[in-house]
Specification:
Order of helices and strands: EEEEEEEHHEHEEEEEHH
Number of strands: 13
Number of helices: 5
Helix content: 25-40%
Radius of gyration: 23 Å
């Protein structure tokens, strides 16, 4: 099997509002009689930059829902999309999903070192599910059964949407070919989201010179306020 993406590098500017990436490929010496025969199954996983995330638990305190506890997790994918030719559980055995961290249930983020208190298995499952729900609500974790389609005997394609709030950085794309729940072939591709233009300059300035960046933003805000005030007085003068 061979696979690729429509764009290996995506520029992120101040006007970036998301983009769509087409993932496509072909099965060498395909034995599939037609596109509709379901002879092969394809699983595509796109995983963004892993990072640290705080999950908090709310409880009812005197009639108010307040954050009463929390947990810090590492290696949380900033983005995770999975597209398949049919429901994932019908394609891949559960032990393979677990061993290779495929699917929301088996994402491998873990409690950060130095956690303030020990987490039970129940706590871990609860926080894990809460993180997945939050990411899904933000459009950053996506599952699309039947999101991969065959075009003819060997060609297949899928469209993955990267939202405007996606984290900039490298994205690992895994394409796996299955037949009767057995892995036949797999292919890995790297996609990069890179800041360009003003966005890149401001990001570099903020991280390289945080103090000057803070002072600059305050000065700009003050100047903008004074100009707006002057224009308002002039318009009403």
């Amino acid at each position: 099997m061979q696979a690729d993406v429509s764009a290996r590098n995506v520029a992120v500017t101040s006007s970036f509002n998301g983009t769509e990436i087409v993932i496509f490929g072909a099965v060498d010496n395909s034995q599939q009689p037609s596109a509709e025969s379901s002879y092969y199954d394809v699983v595509i996983v796109v995983e963004g930059v892993p990072g640290r995330l705080v999950a908090r638990r709310k409880n009812n305190v005197a009639g108010l829902w307040l954050n009463t506890s929390g947990a810090l997790f590492d290696l949380v994918p900033s983005y995770y999309a999975i597209a398949t030719t049919s429901p994932l559980e019908e394609i891949v055995p559960d032990d393979y999903l677990s061993a290779h961290g495929i699917g929301f249930r088996y994402l491998r983020f873990r409690p950060a070192i130095g956690q303030q208190y020990a987490l039970s298995t129940e706590d871990l499952n609860e926080f894990h599910n809460a993180i997945v729900r939050l990411k899904q609500k933000q459009g950053l974790y996506v599952r699309n059964d039947f999101g991969v389609t065959f075009i003819g005997r060997s060609l297949f394609r899928s469209t993955i949407t990267l939202p405007a709030n996606v984290t900039v950085g490298p994205f690992e794309t895994r394409v796996m070919l299955f037949r009767e729940q057995k892995l036949l072939s797999q292919y890995s591709i790297r996609l990069n989201l890179e800041r360009e233009g003003t966005e890149r300059f401001m990001h570099a300035f903020a991280y390289s010179y945080p103090t000057f960046y803070g002072i600059t933003t305050v000065v700009i805000a003050i100047v903008a306020g004074l100009l707006a005030s002057a224009l308002f007085r002039k318009a009403n003068g």
